User: What shape does this take?
Amino acid sequence: MNGLAHSLPNASWQVTVAMLRPDCFRVTQKTRYIALYLLGFAALGLWHHLYFSYSVGEYVFFKNGYDEDTYVLFPFGPAGFRPDRMLSGVIVSAILWFSQESYNITLMVLDTLLPPLIFLAAYYAGAALFAKFSTRSLFALVLIFATDLFSLGRVASYPGPFPTLNQFKALVGDAFVPPLETSYLGLYRSPEPQVSYVIGFLFIGLILRIVLRDAEKTTQREVVKLSIVQMSLMLCYALVSYPLVLWKAWPQ
Assistant: This one.
């Protein structure tokens, strides 16, 4: 018994040493590329604020969307409480509290932190479909910029002679073409749809993992994670969250 008691500390020490070996913290090439993506999205998000501050000679935020400052001033909706603004409202309120009501810091933090999280969530969704890192990355980039690339409503994406929604008005009339042309990328519109993109892409990734496997192989942990993400999704921007929930409920 004494020998066993003496051997237990030695065994636990050996396990601890094994866990602290460099092999356990090995950084792979894939990890480096993902880190570069994250740093790139964060740098782009912070850069336009810093460049604008330098251009005007004072520390101020750059407004991508015309109503970004409105939804930071009224994080739960300008007309009162909106359920689909609850999650983003809580996040904005928390950042405002930590930054002592600084709207400049709040918008800069949102554009620096949320785009990398959006990429991670989109990559997570792509990892459920593809095995190769390059294919997952391409899928994530296409998913992130899909609304900018395929809506024909982003003059930031197609500034040249490429057909846009505005040009269709000459064919069918103003009544049938909504005024959706914008000069910014949806990825950097704060706080929505940024928050909804993170939750929505996580939701897609979880659903794909469950659907593409046999129902018997779904673990209780996956069901709990899906339930938490789905509840969070119901508190996100309606134009992003509700179509995803309807897609999940659609008969397979």
